[in-house]
Amino acid sequence: MKLLSTVTAAAIAATSPAFANDAAQINAAIIGIAAGADRHDWDRVRDAFADEVMLDYTSLWGGEPATAAADDVIAQWSGFLPGFDVTHHMVTNETITSIDGDQATAQADFTATHRIGDELWVLGGRYDYKLANVDGAWKVSALTMTALWETGSRDLVGQAAERASAGN
Fold it and tell me: Whole-angstrom Cα distance, residue 47 to residue 53?
């Protein structure tokens, strides 16, 4: 009977207006990063991040996770993403895995398509997010990307950076 009451309590909490508001804000932050990056709407991306963010792309590039000021992350991303003819970061299956006070975790699957001319680099995998409630708004404080598959050439990233710095 104790298990049933725990399940019932969880179901009630999941349908509460407070949970619905938290879920909407968390999903907006997750989508804001991907959609904002594709649209080069850096204010939208910045609004989704806490002031400092830990990024972990080690499954793709190696190295170590790094914590940086969100403004520095935006400067880096805006320095190469506009060099692609188009990008499309499709984030799906967003799942909030926990909300505990002012901290939350979530996961989502993604497919990221990058194109220059007729060349494509497409990457698929999973994002794991940590979020913090900052002044009543959920912000991504950590993002771990786990690459599960890719096709095409990663060399397009370097080409995009060159094109972006040349203003193309």
Answer: 12
Instruction: Name the one residue in this structure whose structure tokens are 């370097």.
Output: 158
Residue keyed to tokens 């207006």: 17
Does residue 60 contact residue 89 with C-beta atoms inside 8 Å? no
Whole-model pTM above 0.85?
A: yes
SS3 151: strand
- For residue 168, the surrounding DSSP H or E stretch is none
Are 127 and 148 in contact by the 8 Å Cβ rule? The answer is no
Instruction: State pLDDT tens for residues 12-42.
Output: 455 678 888 999 999 999 999 999 999 999 9
Location of structure tokens 């993403």: 81
Nearest to 48 by CA among 21, 77, 28: 28
Report the candidate in 153, 150, 158, 163 with the shortest Cα–Cα distance to residue 112.
150
**DSSP class per residue in 57-100:** -HHHH-S--EEEEHHHHHHHHHTTGGGSSEEEEEEEEEEEEEEE
**What does the pLDDT look like over 41-84, one tens digit per residue?**
999 999 999 999 999 999 999 999 999 999 999 999 999 999 99
